[in-house]
Amino acid sequence: MILKDFLLQRWKNVHSEPLTENQVGKLKILIRNQFGFTGRLPYRFFRSGKDKIWIRRKNSFSLDLDEFRISRWGIYFCRTDFMEKVRFSIEGSQIVGPKASKKILELGNDKVKEWMIGHDLRLAEEQENGFYLIRNKKDFLGCGKVVDNTRVWNYIPKTRRI
Amino acid sequence: MDYRLKEGFKRKYRKLLADDAKRLFEYLTTPLRKAIRVNTLKVENKKVVKRLIQEYECHLDQLSWYEKGYWIEKCRKSVGNTLEHQLGYYYIQSAASMLSVLALDPQPRDKVLDLCAAPGSKTTQIAQLMNNKGIIIANDVNRERTHVLGFNTQKCGVTNCVIPLEDGRNFSHKQEQFDKVLVDAPCSGTGAIRKNPSIAKNWSQSRVEDVATLQKQLLKAGFSVLKRGGSLVYSTCALAPEENEAVIHSLLSSSKHMEIKKIEFQGIKTRPGFININGTSYKNQMRKTRRIWPQDNDTQGFFIAKVEKRA
């Protein structure tokens, strides 16, 4: 393979490894079990790297973009190991959150700023360890991980902090 | 901020606008009012407006030409650093630039090409009008700029967008496949001096002529991938006829399938494109292109042309 073909192949693979039906099924079950999500996810799912999942709108268009370097397609949705954990991006949490019924941590107004600055939080009451959707009223603010039952690790990316 | 305009620049626009040039220079040397566009892919108009007023005591005034756009001022906090902005509930976008997408009029089932898409103001607005349906190919030639574009499409929750990293001129080798094409071409930016005064400092006529060559090539490439019956919008934030009417004229002279379409905007004063500049005459249909002059609406300067590829 000559260098140009090699590079094109690499570009084409960006966010473009589709999940198998089995993997999509597993992911949806995981989201349902972990967060009590009852809605629909009408997207096509793709993976980049080991565990990063991207979503694209389903459509039936054919695209003549062969030989073009695709930098990005769709949005980053979540990270998952397909076994026991799902951690949503901010957008992922906004899609899933409104129809989720468990593993939701409600932040008071006083804690929102701290969260969006990127600080880890201390909980007043103990919670089961694991990943939680972070919510303030109707806003979903990504995911956090409860560790030692009292601390929440912050995953707000630097570029989205206030 | 240093808004001083070069003498050569002033001479050019005095010749073009006569008495109105003075008002143009006055407006070009005052800061641009800030505007936002509510991202209805994520949240309703009125909810964002209510929050911005309650939380930050902002003064908001709906744009008369687009119900999702607002003038915004006097906020207690920078509008680029609020929780609502970081959650993607609104996008900071120049008020006049929202018009290009309104002229394009993308529909939910369309296949749209945004040829020079970064940083993504118009791409995200297109996605909003398409309600995240159909597909948008949002291309840019610069890697860093595609990262910013990707960041903005992520933040706005745009799931129907592909971002190629290509020289827009390379699209001319592709099939006629798009229903709508937006060529918001790189330009000298003279209409945006109010936003970025360094444009005035770096202005030169030779730069205008250089960028016009690129604009003609990009427009040609964009038009070549447009389906028969499809429409293309060409826009710039430049004031120079060389970057606007002359670019449209170059395509009009070389393509028998092209027709300039009338654009109608409500609530904003626009003027027709020039048909006679420095002895060069353009076809009368050039009057269908629209110019938004800073002094007419207290916005930045903009040029918008809509063309159709005849079946």
How is the topology of this model organized?
The complex is a heterodimer of chains A (162) and B (311).
Chain A (H helix, E strand, L loop, with lengths): L2 H10 L4 E2 L2 H15 L7 E6 L3 E6 L12 E4 L1 E6 L5 E3 L1 H7 L7 E3 L2 H9 L3 E2 L7 E7 L2 E9 L3 E4 L8
Parallel strand pairs in A: 7-9
Antiparallel strand pairs in A: 1-2, 2-3, 3-5, 5-6, 8-11, 9-10, 10-11
Chain B lengths: L6 H11 L3 H8 L6 E4 L6 H12 L2 E4 L6 E5 L9 H4 L3 E3 L5 H7 L6 E4 L6 H9 L5 E4 L4 H13 L5 E4 L13 E7 L13 H5 L2 H20 L1 E11 L8 H10 L3 E4 L9 E2 L3 E2 L2 E2 L8 E3 L1 H4 L4 E8 L2
Parallel strand pairs in B: 5-6, 5-8, 6-7, 8-9
Antiparallel strand pairs in B: 1-3, 1-4, 2-3, 9-15, 10-15, 11-14, 12-13, 14-15
3D architecture notes:
The complex is a heterodimer of chains A (162) and B (311). Chain A is an alpha+beta fold and 162 residues long. In chain A, 25% of the residues lie in helices and 32% in strands. Chain A is built from four helices and eleven strands, in the order αβαβββββαβαββββ. The longest helix of chain A is centred in the first third of the chain and has 15 residues, at 21-35. Chain B is of the alpha/beta class. In chain B, the strands form three sheets. In chain B, strands 5, 6, 7, 8, 9, 10, 11, 14 and 15 form a nine-stranded mixed sheet that branches.
Task: Output the keywords.
heterodimer, A: 162 residues, alpha+beta, five-stranded antiparallel beta sheet, five-stranded mixed beta sheet, 4 helices, 11 strands, B: 311 residues, alpha/beta, nine-stranded mixed beta sheet, four-stranded antiparallel beta sheet, 11 helices, 22% strand
Helix content of chain A: 25-40%
Poorly predicted regions of chain A: none
**Alpha-carbon distance between the termini of chain B?**
50 Å
Count of β-strands of chain A: 11
Oligomer: heterodimer
Sheet-strand content of chain A, in percent, reads: 25-35%
